[in-house]
Amino acid sequence: MTPALPLPGRARLARSPRRLLASLLPIALLALPLPAMATPAANDLPVEEIQTFAEVFERIKRAYVEEVDDATLLRNAMRGMLSELDPHSAYLDREEFQSLRESTQGEFGGIGIEVGLEDGQLTVISPIDDTPASRAGLQARDLILRIDDTPTESLSLQEAVNLMRGEPGSRIELTIQRRGESAPRSVTLTREVIRTESVRSELLEPGYGYLRVSQFQSRTADQVGDHIRRLERDGSLNGLVLDLRNNPGGVLQAAVGVADAFLESGLIVYTEGRLADTEMQFSAGSDTAAPEVPLVVLINGGSASAAEIVAGALQDQRRAVVMGTESFGKGSVQQIMPLGNGEGLKLTTALYYTPNGRSIQAQGIEPDVEVVRGRVEVTESGRQVREADLEGHLRSREAPRERAELSERLREDYQLGEALNLLKALNVLSRR
């Protein structure tokens, strides 16, 4: 392998593009005459494009209205290379690299929101549960037009994330454009220390559990198993709702572990990329937390990436009924690659596929049963008079049935209520 010359740092600017080109090309390549390289092989460097790059570099140095140092120009060039690949690849400086590591560990300062670029616009993927963003009512696919006084159209994804993060207690104003609304709205939020607990659970009523996974972190799969065992302490489960709505994704292995909690065997997900180490396949093991509990999975437009892996696997394996609305459609895998200088790359290296070979990228998961967002309204005026309400009615010889109270969560969540109704219907059908 022929060694390459180091890139120029803060050295004096070359006086011609050809001299700058000489500092960017391998020694062996420079030894060849240019005419001999008119039709380069597939792995050869594109000489004309590199020469153009060097010329642009020199003209910026000479003519730009403000002086820019070489390191800044080269770093911006690297950012540009990655940002033009896809919305999820990025060059990370030291601060950005550290910020990304903090977010995957589950604690950081900000407003609790997952964002991405969609058609070049900064778009909400989903708010994280119990954070300033979710309490302010931000929704999946809201467009963020401004962050304080900064328009987002000129920002990279990482620059936008950096602006939204900050000291707990500080305020931030977002200008939001919601689809279906004619005018933007302004939302003011107060930053907090975001400590994300990825799993929580409760009994909706006796025998029917609710399991909420807000994002996939390193311990999420273990936590799901713990919560299932906790729900089963008061008796066996007749049904379980797995809520993946507004779940932006996270760690791939955590998604595999959550799907494995409900599957005894079979493929969960596989990935395909250009390199051999990006082609992976994950299957379920026999040690399963809830192999036979009837299961409904709730998804919506904020369910992305790892959440779609779980929903797609359980759907393809006919293990669950998927209910809600179509998911976000992020079917790519990113690797975080540290660089020797303390910085890093976030690079898309593969696409993932469900057990039946479906690619979710830009497609999403379609629910088996579509249920749009709504709210349950209970009105006393609509209650009908029954026999038991009449004065002097004959009493049954059997003990009166206890009426199950409608939980506050069910009152506020129409989709969840429909999921519970479906679980009850599945139990009736299985008994018959």
Largest sheet strand order: 10-11-12-15-16-19
What is the terminal-to-terminal distance?
72 Å
Helix-and-strand structural type = alpha+beta
What is the number of helices?
12
Q: What is the arithmetic mean of pLDDT?
A: 83
Work out the helicity level: 25-40%
Describe the protein in words:
This protein has about 425 residues and is of the alpha+beta class. A 6-stranded mixed sheet has the order 10-11-12-15-16-19, with helices on both faces. Strands 1, 13, 14, 17 and 18 form a 5-stranded antiparallel sheet that branches. Strands 6-5-7-8 form a 4-stranded antiparallel sheet, covered by helices on one side. The chain is about 30% helix and about 25% strand. The termini are far apart. β5 and β6 (about 150) form a beta hairpin.
List the helices and strands and how they pair.
Blueprint: H1 17-24, H2 27-30, H3 47-63, H4 70-83, E1 90-92, H5 94-105, E2 107-110, E3 113-118, E4 121-127, H6 132-135, E5 143-147, E6 150-151, H7 157-164, E7 171-177, E8 185-190, E9 192-195, E10 199-205, E11 208-213, H8 220-231, E12 239-243, H9 252-260, E13 267-273, E14 281-283, E15 295-299, H10 306-316, E16 321-324, E17 332-338, E18 344-353, E19 369-370, H11 408-412, H12 414-431
Notable traits:
five-stranded antiparallel sheet; globular; single chain; alpha+beta; six-stranded mixed sheet; 432 residues
Provide a short characterization of the protein structure:
The chain has 432 residues and is α+β, with helices and mostly antiparallel strands.
